[in-house]
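This part of the workshop introduces the protein records we will be handling. To make this concrete, we reproduce a full record directly below.
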Amino acid sequence: MNLFDTHAHLNDEQLSGRESEIIETSLDAGVTAITAIGTDLISSSQCLEIANRQTSVYASAGIHPNSCHLASVSEWHGIQQLAKDPRVVAIGETGLDCYWDDCPLTIQREWFVRHFELSFETGKPLVVHMRDSEKEILNIFKEHHRAGSVHGIMHSFTGSWETAKRCLDYGMYISFAGMVTFKSAGPLREIARKIPLDRILIETDSPYLTPHPHRDVRPNEPKMIIHTARCLAEVCGVAFEEFAATTSQNAKQVFGISC
């Protein structure tokens, strides 16, 4: 079995001190690769440190939309330097969040565009956070795409089919986390069913969003991705082993990983 968790916050304090155990149990569960996602300069640096210690882990570098009002120019310069490292395979977590009011939307937009430019400069994909901001995200795609396309991943997607279709048209991959397994998530599973198999990804967003049937277990870990994969394989009407292999290949494709 070959599963790729495309989005995990391995440096989160809920997982602190258990790195080796988490990686070992993930490998035992068939999770052969994980992307550790940064949300600011400190966490992005920590993700890269983990990736340098663990061959199954890759890193991203970016500033989360709910944190960008706290970021400085020097911190952004640090992100730009991290993005040059070959173990950093993505830019973000970036995007827009209109649910929380931690950061004004105008500032979020400015930082999202900075991440866009860094993605173009490095050739590395964006990891896009979208919460209550579908229209705003699509507007930025429209304004800042190059040659009609955007390179990246819609992380933990919960939007509408219309938004998913627009994102696919721009060239984005659509990633699903544990929420797609929840009993109440029938409409989201219907959207997942429509996503082309060569554009679908899976993630845990650990330590958050533990999938059914372990929804009450905290913290979530990469090993739990098997439940999301099994759910989506059934939804998409393909064998579990095929779905695991396909989504892993998709992840390698978007992250530019050759091995």
Remarks:
- The beta strands are 3-8, 31-36, 57-61, 88-97, 126-131, 152-154, 173-176, 200-202.
- Residues 67 and 181 are 29 Å apart (CA to CA).
- The chain is about 40% helix and 15% strand.
- The longest helix spans residues 105-122.
